[in-house]
Design brief:
The protein is α/β, with parallel strands linked by helices. The protein contains 13 helices and seven strands. Helix 9 runs antiparallel to helix 11 and helix 9 runs antiparallel to helix 12.
C-alpha cells in the first residue's frame, strides 16, 4: 500500500507562521481562555473549588487493525510526507503519535508523555512507556494541523507476544480518542480475532467513534474478489451481537498511485471527510463546553457569595445570642452582690444615697425577694447562692462555646470574586459569542448571521 508522497518541508515551514485556519484559531483561543495564568477559567474555577479540564487544540485519531493493513501508509499519504515506516512486516512495534509542529523532530516515550500530559496514565501499563514515540513534522496538508494521529501496533493472532498488554492499552486510548479508524485488509488477516475482539469491546462504549474501511482494496483482485472479501468480513462482524447493527458501512480505500492505475472505486477521500466532520464537531463541542463551563463558574461564584452572606447573617445572630447569655451570666452575680450590699447598708445610708422616694421604690421591688430570702434557712441560702453562681458560669460557658462563628470571606476576597464573575459573564461569554460567529461565517452568509 505504498505510494508517492511529496516532501513539502521547506514550503510548509514558511507557512507555519501564517495561514492559520479559522478552526485552528478558534481551538487555540478557547484553549488560551482556559489556561491563561492570570485570568484563565481553570484558575478562576479553582478559586471556587470547581475543577475544569482545558480543551485540546487538536483532535486525536487512532488507527487500528491487523499488521500490514496500511495504517502507516495512510498517515504518510494524509500528511504527504514519509513519516512512518511501511512494509509487509510488523513495522509499528509500539504506539506512535504523529502531529504537526515547527520543525521535524522525533520524541521518545518520556518526551511524548510530557508533550501529551493527558496520556500520562499510560505509564501505569507495564512496558508501554518504552514503546511510545512521537513524530513531529511540518506538514500543513489537508487538516493535519488540527489532527494528532495515533498509529497502533499491528494486531496478529497466535503466539505473537507483545511487550505490554496491547488490548487494554488500545481500549484505554479509545476512551480518549475522538475518532478510531479500523482498517481491514483483503490479504487474509482481516478476520484477525484479536482485532475483532477489541473492536467489539470498543463498540460497546464508543460505537459512534468507530469507522470501518477495507484498505488495500486495489490488491484484492477483481470486483468479484473484493465483494467476496467484504462479504466475509461483514459476515464475521455480524456474528458478534454488538457489531450487528443497521447502517453498517465499510468503504473501500487504497493509496492512489499514478504508476499503478486501478479500476477499483477509491473512497479514501471519504476518510478525509470523516476527519473533517470530526474536527467541525470538536469545534462546536469546544464552544458549547466553554459556555457550559462559564455557567458552571458563574453559578459557583454566585453560590459562594450567597453562602457567605448567609454565614455572615448566622454569625450576627450567634453574636447576639452570645452577648445576651454573657449579659445574663454577669447579671446573676451582680444581683447577688447588690442584695448583699443593700442588706449591709443601714436605712439611713440608703435614704442619703437614694432619697426617701428612691428607698421606698427599691424596697417595694425587692420586698418579694427579701421575703423569700428571709424564709430560707442559712444552709438553704448558701445552696441558693451556690446554685446562682453555678448558673452564671454555665451561661458564660454556653455563650463562649455554643455560639461560635463560622469563617467568612474578607472584603477583598468578595471583591475579587465579584470581579471574576463579571469577567466570566462579560469578557469570556462575549469572546465565546465572537468565536461562534467566526465559525458560523465560514458556512453561513452574512445576511443570515444578521438575523
Amino acid at each position: 500500500m505504498s505510494g508517492k508522497t511529496k516532501n513539502r518541508s521547506a514550503a510548509n515551514a514558511d507557512s507555519i507562521t501564517g495561514g492559520v485556519s479559522c478552526d485552528e484559531r478558534i481551538l487555540r483561543d478557547c484553549h488560551q481562555l482556559y489556561t491563561d495564568l492570570d485570568s484563565g477559567l481553570i484558575s478562576v474555577a479553582e478559586s471556587v473549588n470547581v475543577k475544569l479540564l482545558p480543551p485540546r487544540k487538536k483532535i486525536t485519531v487512532m488507527l487500528m487493525g491487523n499488521h500490514s493493513a496500511g495504517k502507516s501508509s495512510f498517515i504518510n499519504w494524509y500528511v504527504e510526507e514519509h513519516i512512518q515506516r511501511t512494509g509487509v512486516a510488523i513495522e509499528t512495534q509500539g504506539f506512535n503519535f504523529i502531529t504537526s509542529g515547527r520543525k521535524r523532530e522525533s520524541l521518545t516515550g518520556n518526551a511524548t508523555l510530557h508533550l501529551y500530559p493527558h496520556f500520562k496514565p499510560l505509564q501505569e501499563f507495564k512496558g508501554v512507556s518504552e514503546y511510545l514515540s512521537t513524530e513531529i513534522c511540518t506538514s500543513r496538508q489537508k487538516r493535519f494541523s488540527l489532527v494528532t494521529f495515533v498509529d497502533s501496533p499491528g494486531l496478529v493472532d497466535g503466539d505473537m507476544k507483545y511487550p505490554f498488554d496491547v488490548d487494554e492499552v488500545i481500549m484505554w486510548l479509545g476512551d480518549l480518542c475522538d475518532l478510531v479508524l479500523v482498517f481491514f485488509d483483503p490479504m487474509g488477516q482481516a478476520l484477525c480475532k484479536r482485532s475483532l475482539n477489541i473492536v467489539e469491546r470498543m463498540n460497546e462504549k464508543h460505537g459512534d467513534r468507530l469507522r470501518f474501511y477495507l484498505s488495500k482494496a486495489d490488491e484484492a483482485g477483481g470486483e468479484s474478489d473484493r465483494q467476496r472479501v467484504m462479504m466475509q468480513i461483514v459476515q464475521e462482524l455480524c456474528k458478534r451481537p454488538g457489531l450487528n447493527k443497521c447502517g453498517f458501512d465499510m468503504p473501500t480505500i487504497y493509496i492512489p498511485n499514478p504508476n499503478k492505475p486501478s479500476r477499483c472505486v477509491n473512497q479514501i477521500e471519504e476518510v478525509c471527510r470523516t476527519i473533517e466532520k470530526t474536527i467541525n464537531q470538536t469545534v462546536q463541542n469546544t464552544l458549547n463546553s466553554l459556555e457550559k463551563d462559564c455557567e458552571l463558574i458563574s453559578e459557583a461564584i454566585t453560590d459562594t457569595l450567597g453562602n457567605d452572606r448567609q454565614t455572615s447573617a448566622m454569625n450576627r445572630r450567634a453574636r447576639c445570642k452570645s452577648c445576651l447569655l454573657t449579659l445574663l451570666g454577669f447579671t446573676v452575680p451582680l444581683a447577688l452582690m447588690a442584695l448583699l450590699v443593700l442588706g449591709i447598708l443601714s436605712q439611713e445610708l440608703l435614704e442619703v444615697a437614694l432619697g426617701r422616694e428612691g428607698t421606698e421604690t427599691l424596697s417595694l421591688y425587692l420586698s418579694p425577694v427579701v421575703k423569700v430570702f428571709d424564709s430560707l434557712s442559712v444552709e438553704q441560702r448558701l445552696y441558693g447562692c451556690g446554685g446562682m453562681v453555678l448558673l452564671s458560669f454555665l451561661l458564660l460557658i454556653i455563650a463562649r462555646f455554643a455560639f461560635r462563628t463560622q469563617p467568612t470571606l474578607s472584603g477583598k476576597q468578595k471583591r475579587q470574586l465579584q470581579e471574576k464573575l463579571e469577567y466570566v459573564q462579560e469578557v469570556v461569554k462575549s469572546k465565546k459569542k465572537k468565536l461562534y460567529d467566526e465559525y458560523l461565517r465560514q458556512s453561513v452568509s452574512d445576511h443570515d448571521m444578521d438575523l
